[in-house]
Amino acid sequence: MKLELTTAKKWIALFVEKLENNMAVLNELDTAIGDGDHGTNMKRGAEAITAAFAKKEPETLADLYKTTAFAMIQKVGGASGPLYGTAFLDMSKAEKSDELELGDLLQIGTDGLKRRGQSDVGMKTMIDVWQPVSEAAKNNQLNQKVIDDALAKGKDLVATKGRASYLEEKSKGHIDPGSQSSAYLFESLIEAIGA
Ligand code: ADP
Ligand code: MG
Ligand code: MG
User: Fold this and answer.
1) Is the CB of 80 under 6 A from ligand 1?
2) Which residue's CA is the nearest one to ligand 1's atom 9?
3) What was the ipTM of the complex prediction?
4) 78 lines ligand 1 (CB under 6 A)
5) How distant, in Å, are the alpha carbons of 9, 79, 97, 193 from that of 61?
6) Which of 5, 18, 125, 152 shows its CA 20 to 30 Å from the CA of 158?
7) Structure confidence by residue, pLDDT tens digits, 55-82
8) Is 163 exposed, middle or buried (0-12, 13-18, 19+ CB in 10 A)?
9) 177 lines ligand 1 (CB under 6 A)
10) Taking the complete model, does pTM exceed 0.90, yes or no?
């Protein structure tokens, strides 16, 4: 399937809403294995997305993803700002030349994360959610269970990238905050699609 502009707008609007409603949850997860700011960072990004859309309503998919990317890069900060920013910027560039299938679009975002973060699956980062979600979308099998399974699997991992990696074995048994915010992103997508 391909995303229509209206569906994609709904996707990002729902993501913004979830970030605003769950700042404390994300901060708590980050307090356990990081520096406690992931919720605050992402809420700042959410507000920046809203402000940017109010200033200029996106008219294309490429526009929508680019505006989202810039808001993330400029306002989220931390490790996650440039990561989300790169994922959305790469998706924006790809939409410019092609009408992408959803799974291919998400894979491009995932590849951007890997490149920017010099990371891959199994390192207890948001990639542990993005990659299986992309895979499922390519097979037209994206649903809530894919996200829940990815979070559960990531919980048992030892972090080898990001701040949580400083904790080594002690990072085990905790949900990675960036994986949780990515879960909100893809739960928003499922809701927007109405799947
Ligand atoms: P910071 O760690 O700088 O305070 P955040 O708390 O906003 O930034 O974001 C932390 C999240 O970023 C982690 O939970 C993880 O999912 C993600 N992350 C950190 N480093 C990497 C990396 N190298 N590759 C992919 N994701 C990463
Ligand atoms: Mg943090
Ligand atoms: Mg920080």
Assistant:
1) yes
2) 80
3) 0.99
4) yes
5) 8, 25, 11, 15
6) 18
7) 999 999 999 999 999 999 999 999 999 9
8) middle
9) yes
10) yes
